[in-house]
Design a protein that fits this description.
Largest sheet: 5 strands, parallel
Helix content: 40-55%
Radius of gyration: 17 Å
Number of helices: 9
Enzyme class: transferase
Order of helices and strands: EHEHHEEEHHEHEHHEH
Keywords: ATP-binding, Cytoplasm, Kinase, Nucleotide-binding, Transferase
InterPro entries: Cytidylate_kin, Cytidylate_kinase_dom, P-loop_NTPase
Family: Belongs to the cytidylate kinase family. Type 1 subfamily.
Strand order of the largest sheet: 2-6-1-7-8
Number of strands: 8
Catalytic activity: CMP + ATP = CDP + ADP; dCMP + ATP = dCDP + ADP
Bound molecules: cytidine-5'-monophosphate
Shape: globular
């Protein structure tokens, strides 16, 4: 039985991780959140006083960075040098740090094999920005999940509110727009829809509807 890969790409806060987790659970596949890897490198740069936008500085850190993914009760945790940084990398300021380091070619090269290794041995639902285009171009099913920037900012705000954090809607919207721009305009592995990806705009769809639509597509393909 060869492992099966499902790729989910799309802009920030389109609901990729939530639907990917659900889809993976329903299919019995492993969920791999690749954004967490870029966040871990951004966090590492930040905590060592290196500007995440300084490519030479970040590149120099790479040989000493040891990132590992571990699953605890089916939930992905990120270890940086053996330390669990899963909570720290979710801080709002780490989103932009991740976006900045992700434009550095050496960072992308460094993370490529790590991501591919998962799909070699396990059936995966992997989400990110370049999964269907670069990381797993042979994925069995590819999705490009998107929603309007306003709706994405609104959802992100609710998510933070549930964690008891108050964040400004306009600041979130501006950050989402800036990240979308950076992610889709970088020279290497920019965020683009793969030609063979199924595009789902879920601006007016519920989570359940989105997952059902995706599951339907997957079942039709497998
Ligand atoms: O998905 P998440 O918002 O956690 O990703 C954080 C940042 O990591 C993105 O804004 C993007 O710049 C980068 N990223 C990437 N390629 C991926 C996943 C994330 O460039 N496959």
């Amino acid at each position: 039985n060869r492992p099966i890969a499902i790729a989910i790409d799309g802009p920030a806060a389109a609901g990729k991780s939530t639907v990917a987790r659900r889809l993976a659970a329903e299919l019995g596949f492993l969920y791999v959140d690749t954004g967490a890897l870029y966040r871990a490198i951004g966090y590492c740069a930040h905590s060592r006083g290196v500007d995440p936008g300084d490519s030479a500085g970040v590149e120099k850190l790479l040989p000493d960075i040891h990132i590992a993914i571990k699953y605890v009760g089916g939930v992905q945790r990120i270890l940086l040098g053996g330390k669990d940084v899963s909570e720290e990398i979710r801080l709002p300021e780490m989103s932009m740090a991740a976006s900045k380091v992700s434009a550095i070619p050496a960072v992308r090269a460094y993370l490529l094999e790590l991501q591919r290794d998962f799909a070699r041995t396990e059936s995966v639902v992997m989400d990110g920005r370049d999964i269907g285009t670069v990381v797993l171009p042979g994925a069995a099913v590819k999705f490009f999940l998107t929603a309007s920037p306003e709706e994405r900012a609104r959802r992100r705000m609710l998510e933070f509110a549930q964690k008891g954090r108050k964040v400004d809607y306009n600041a979130l919207l501006a950050e989402i727009r800036e990240r979308d721009y950076n992610d889709s305009h970088r020279a290497i592995a920019p965020l683009v829809q793969a030609p063979d990806a199924v595009r789902i705009d879920n601006t007016a769809m519920t989570l359940e509807e989105t997952v059902a639509a995706m599951k339907h597509r997957v079942e039709g393909k497998l």
